[in-house]
Automatic annotation (TrEMBL):
GO terms for biological process: methylation. This is Protein-S-isoprenylcysteine O-methyltransferase. It comes from Ancylobacter crimeensis. Its EC number is 2.1.1.100. The keyword RNA-binding does not apply. The lineage of its organism: Bacteria, Pseudomonadati, Pseudomonadota, Alphaproteobacteria, Hyphomicrobiales. It is an enzyme of class 2 (transferase). The keyword Transferase applies. It is found in: Membrane. The chain crosses the membrane at residues 6-25, 45-66, 72-93, 133-163.
Length: 195
């Protein structure tokens, strides 16, 4: 098997792993009553940007090799390191879902019995799911030897993150007030000890 075939398989398995983690939680939370939902149209646009960068653009490269002109040489070290980063992102992604339980949602929503989660991975960063997606985007950058498809995840998800995180924190402040302010003061956003 060639290195390119191996990297395509790793990326595809990572995408399947993401879906297998997300699907049961998505089904479970559909029954929860939403009491506050913000910016549905804006959310769809941001989710589309993220999906393009983490799914569609790299998926086209994996399926067709296009755009071939943007390919560059690839090494075993990149394959191994990219695979390890992808595994770490999936582990963190699963933990975030497990820690959030019924409080989880794809878009900015507050559920009827929503509570502020500050345990588990949420004890280290306020937005570990975003951390997991940034790890996925980093894995994609390392795994896909193409200057368009590789960084597309960082661009697409970066757009979602930077246009959404402030709104999300505003919603949490509106809902949890001083409890969330105290949580913000002691817990970094997405990188433990840094940001």
């Amino acid at each position: 098997m060639s290195l390119l075939a191996a990297t395509k398989i790793v990326w595809a398995l990572g995408l399947i792993g993401w879906y297998m983690i997300r699907y049961p939680f998505e089904r479970r939370v559909k029954r929860e009553r939403v009491v506050d939902a913000r910016s549905r149209r804006r959310e769809r646009i941001l989710l589309t940007c993220s999906t393009m960068g983490l799914g569609i653009i790299p998926g086209i490269w994996v399926a067709t090799g296009w755009p071939r002109f943007a390919n560059y040489p690839f090494t075993v070290v990149q394959l191994v390191f990219g695979t390890l980063v992808f595994i770490a992102s999936l582990w963190l992604f699963r933990r975030t879902h497990k820690d959030l339980g019924k409080n989880w949602s794809v878009t900015l929503e507050i559920k009827e019995k929503h509570r502020l989660i500050t345990e588990g991975v949420y004890g280290h960063v306020r937005h570990p799911m975003y951390s997991a997606f940034f790890l996925w985007a980093l894995a994609q950058l390392i795994l896909i030897p193409n200057v368009i498809a590789g960084p597309a995840g960082l661009v697409g998800f970066g757009i979602l993150f930077f246009f959404r995180v402030g709104q999300e924190e505003g919603m949490m402040l509106d809902t949890f007030g001083d409890e969330y302010r105290a949580y913000m003061a002691r817990t970094p956003r997405i990188i433990p000890g840094l940001y």
